[in-house]
Every structure is written in C-alpha cells, then in structure tokens.
Design a protein that fits this description.
- It contains 13 helices and no strands.
- It has two domains: 170 residues, MFS general substrate transporter like domains (Growth Hormone, Chain: A); 187 residues, MFS general substrate transporter like domains (Growth Hormone, Chain: A), CATH 1.20.1250.
- 77% of the residues lie in helices and 0% in strands.
- It is mostly helical.
- The longest helix is centred in the middle third of the chain and has 51 residues.
- The two termini are 23 Å apart.
Amino acid sequence: MSGLETVGDPPLAVTSPPRHEAAVSQGIGVVALLIAGLQPVILGALEREGRLSTAEIGLTATVELMALGVACGLAAAFLKPTHIRLKIALACLAHAGAMLATTLASGAEVILARGVAGACAGVMLWLAIGVIARSSRPERASGVFVTVQTFAQLVLAAALPALVMGRWGVNGALVSLAVISLLAAGAALAGPDRFSVLPKPEGGGGKLGAAPLGGLLAVFLYMAFIVALWVYLEPLAAQAGLSPREAGLAVALALGLQVLGGAAATLVGDRAPPARILIGVGLINAVILAVLWSGPGRGLFVACVAAFGFLWLFALPFQTLLLIRLDPTRRAAMQLGAAQLLGSSAGPLAASLVVGDGEVGRALALSAVCLTAALALISLLASRARTPVASGADSTG
C-alpha cells in the first residue's frame, strides 16, 4: 500500500458551493485558461502582422503565463473568500480590456498588455480552483475542468483562424476573446459570492508544512517537464522525418487525446492512490523520453506523441488529489494553479536557454531531469508518510 493512501485520510470537511455556482466558476476558469491553448494562434498572427518579433513571441508567452500563475497564487494567499461576484466580475472586465488593448499594441506594448491579461486571468482561475478544492470529489471536479478547458481550446484554435482571422486578422480574434470575457463577467453574477473558510491545521497558523510544499514543488517540476517537451515537438518531429503537415497532425492527435486523458482520469477518480498513479504515469513518460531520444521512426514518434498527450491531462487531477492527501486543509490545493502555471512557463524558458542554437535533443535531456526530480520528490513524500512523524504532521484535523 502506498504511504500516501492514508495521509490526511479522511480529508477535513469543507462546504461545497451549489452545483450551478460550481459550474459557473469552472466556466470562468476555462475562459481564464483559453489563452494557454491559443498562444500559438494569437502570437503567431501578431508576428506575421509585424507587431511582434520572433524573439518577442517567447517572451510574451512567458510573461503572460507567469503573470497568470503568480496572480493565481497571490489571490489564493491574500484574497478573502467574500464578495466574490464583484471581484470576479471586475477581473473579467479588466481581462476584456486587456484583450482590446492588445488590438492597439505592438512590440513592448503587446508584452505589457498580455502581462495584464495574465494577471486578470489568474484571479479568474482562483475562482475555479477554489470550487475544485472545496469539492467533495476534487479529483472528479478537476478532471471535468481540464477536459472542458482543453476541448474549448481545441474548438477556438480551429474556429478563430477559419471563421474570424481570415477576414479581420488577429484583432478579430482578440475582440472575440474580449466578448467571451465580457460574457464571463455577466456569468460571475450568478456564481458564488463567498466560499466556506478552509480549516486550519490543529497547530494553528496557515503556513504550509514541508510535505505540502514538497508536493507543490513536485507539481512545478512535473509541468516543467511536460511543457519543455511540448514546445519542441515540431523540431523533434522534423528530426524523426515528419513533414510539417505530418507534425501538425501529430500535435492535433495529441491534443485530441488530451481530452480523452482528462475524461479517463474523471472515471478513475480516487480508486487508486494519487502518488502511485503519478509515479506510474511518470515512468511511462520516462519510456517515451527514452524512445524519442533514440531517434524513432515516423510511426513510433507519432505513437509516443499521442501517448504523451493522453498522459498529460490524465495526470493533472491526481495532482489535486495528491496535494489534498498531503494537506487535508486543502490550502496547498489552492496553490495548485500557481505551481502548474509557473512550471509550465519555467520549463520552456529553461529549455530555450539549454537548447539555444544547438541540438534540440537537449530539450529532451532537460525534460528528463525535471521528470526525474518530480518523481523522486513524490516517492520521498510517499516513503516519509509511512513514518510516525510524517503521519502525525500530515494528518491534521
């Protein structure tokens, strides 16, 4: 039996928002994260229109995702769970304003506008994470959230270029996203106006212990591994002999299987210990990295990319469950979005520094280091959970 099967078991009781308020909250969270799947479409179009340089694309993407992660973490730490409708409505309106400001911007102005948009989206995401963390079945709520989020990104990534950008350019897409944010502002008025206060540890204070912090670091490293590999899939596909069209189809297949991975995680739920699931998924990913490093043929490369896409979203709900097992007060789970987003932006940034103008295979090496560190941390947390000291520290309440 995995040590984490009994850590903080059972979780401390919290009051979940009504179902319709939870649905509104998750919908607003989906709007907040749309840009994560649309950055290639939006930023690539800005570059084609001469409003961003090639170098500025990477910087803009990093700034927006980092702002999103930092704002989400700060909101979880400092925003009081009262008057939520007003706070979220204002964040959605500001997010729409940042989208519209981007239509008038170029160069550094775009980077600034996207940073503001990321900060607003972080507050919007805080709402969704607050609902998930307070859910009676957080792993299921998280699975539904990531599945709907990815599906929405897929739909817009196909619809905006086909129906909007051909006629109105990237500004048409930005205005469309602004309208979606305005609709989210209206929906916020039907969402929760307050959350139940999360319980505090028996020892008092609200600081996270070593185990929850270790869990958040493991999530950070896990996401750094995933996205550092993801952003270099196309050059790796070229090395494997795929044409640009075939590489695009491989990426599209991976995106489709992400939706299936999230749905599969929702079905599995809490039937298996989260540490065991994450370690098992990590070991399969290690095999995928080894195959990609070996220089596979085209068919094997596509199969690896497809499996990678499925495992990506399959793992995410179990990160939520892992943090709740480590910290039954669910305060660590409130920082999950920050850890995921900061890891997702730090991974590509580190990979770009490692790869530079050199061999793209170095991105695989960096991904392997991040994955190994994440799995080592999860294994350490699981083993320490078997000791009386760790069990006592992590079974508060």
